[in-house]
Amino acid sequence: MKFSQNGLYIESYTKCTNCGVLIYDKIDQAVKGPDNASYCSSWCIDWKKDRDARRSKVKVTS
Amino acid sequence: MDFVTMNILESTMVSICREMGIVLMKTSYSTIFNEALDFTCGLADLNGDMIAVADYCPSQIGGMPLLVRSCLKEIPLSEIEEGDVILHNDPYRGGLHTPEHTFFKPIFADGELMGFAVAIGHIAEVGGMAPGGFCGEATEIFHEGLRIPPVKIKKRGKDNIEVWKLLLANVRTPRVNYGDLRALIAAVDLGEKQMAGIFQKYGRQKVQDTVRDLLLYSERRMRAELEALPDGRFNFIDHIESDGIEEDRKHTIEVEVTKKGGDIIVDYTGSSPQAAGPINATLGVATSAAYNAVLHMTDPSIPRNSGCFRPIRIVAPPGTIVNVDFPAPEVGGNTETHPRIVGAIMGAMAKAVPNRIMAAEGATHCNFVFGGVDADTGEFFACYDLEAVGWGGRAFADGNDAVDSINGNCRITPVEVYETRFPWRIESLAFNADSGGAGEFRGGLGYTKQMLCLNKEIICSQMTDRHLIAPWGLNGGGEGGTGATLVQKAGEEKWKTMREAYGKKSTSRYSNVSIREGDRVKLVTPGGGGYGDPGKRPKELVRDDLHEGYISKDFAKRAYKYQEAE
């Protein structure tokens, strides 16, 4: 979440691409995924990768 | 762990939270507080972890940790002083929806900050497009009332007058709001005072160590509960019928629950993109709903605190109906979408633990909100009215009749109070026969409330659900009855839906309908789904239901093959 320079309002809301938690600028350390999106943790990168793979497999076989 | 001290301290802290709630109930002005009890009081540590809570509103209980943590991201501990009271309601920063106002007050011991007393309450009138805060046709947050980032409403024990003026200038009922806000502050004042006494009695270190152990104890017990459940991935999809804007478009809630050992992951990926209308849930709601569902299927004697929540991880993709992005509307997410998320998680887990899961409940609070100028006093009034629904049948009992939906735990305002406070006459309030889904254990019943307007005009809005999609049954049980909202204009005989009478896009979500003196409104609430094969229901119970008027002769014959000689 990016605050204005004077700290009085929010310029943009950044959320983890996977789990949706807010990532606060200058407080939380965002992690860049292979898709260049922002994630809150490496767990979220792995979880999304596994889920996408699992679901695409289900779609192919069904 | 010193179990004896831990037990005493836990019970004491829960009692403090209950006492905070009683103060709030007794000093507030609105029926939503002093009758419905739509609030929650708790205690938090410096990490924002909830360390104790009273048994009030589940949606607020589960939302509390994220709310406090979000505030602490913006107001660091170093800037918090004795006597401060912080207020927050921003849905996009950990909040639940705009009406839900969170107050927290720091607790100091020997000059050192130790934690917070927290009170969350649903303020009945928050400004915005419709009186009562639930604008069924809102398309952006700015229609839904005043958004309050974390601000100090009191600084070092003194009112922050500028904040008060801003708050009260933006609502229709400033006198009542003032009383309700003061009641919430009275609750955190009491919590702070009582906890300061606890620190004095036991000493800071002892309390901190014991609380740490308490959270660990809850976590261990929750993990033990989860370990006893079958591992696997369990899926469920449910639908919400409309968002009030896009006519008859269904919205999907998709849930995948992964249970492995003592951990559980609730993943909402696949749920619909955020809606144009106000049915979107915030991250706080999606989080709270997952906690609520897990608490409903595990041992209720586990102390309720953030320790219980540690084994639960939530995946709520942004920009979806379960994690709304600014500036989309969201007020119905906390009341309507929350119970549907809980239902979807329970539907998924029914495959793993069918004996712990009930069939679908009514899953709406009806949210009939209204306001106007009282003809007698000349003062503007506003009310957030919630109504009860039937709950789903269970593996061991029928569903509860006419109780608040699963995330509310609120009371229904008594007819006498309703008529005294607002210009309506309640002409009837009765169970809906046949609304409980058939089953070995039938669903609970919804009811119908018929009201006559006594004021020159009352402006009404509503955010409800289940007019089209009935609550599902489980393990062969039948669907529960659907709800309805009908209006009969003065001098007319026909009862019409809001779509027929006022050209609204949805029968269940609409705003700013002008009900005139002599008009009647009928609120029909949904029942719950049935559990198990109706053929296995003992005939004596079917007979009793028939004689009590819970089911009709036709329903008894059709659903249970039961017929009595004329």
What does this structure look like?
The complex is a heterodimer of chains A (62) and B (566). Chain A is 32% helix and 15% strand. Chain A has 62 residues and is α+β, with helices and mostly antiparallel strands. Chain A has a two-stranded antiparallel ribbon. A two-stranded antiparallel ribbon of chain A has the order 3-4. The longest helix of chain A has 20 residues, at 42-61. Chain A starts with a strand and ends with a helix. With 566 residues, chain B is of the alpha+beta class. In chain B, the strands form four sheets. In chain B, strands 2-1-5-4-3-6-7 form a seven-stranded antiparallel sheet, sandwiched between helices. In chain B, strands 14-15-20-17-18 form a five-stranded antiparallel sheet. The radius of gyration of chain B is 23 Å and the shape is globular. The chains are: A alpha+beta (62), B alpha+beta (566). Chains A and B meet through helix 1 of A and strand 11 of B.
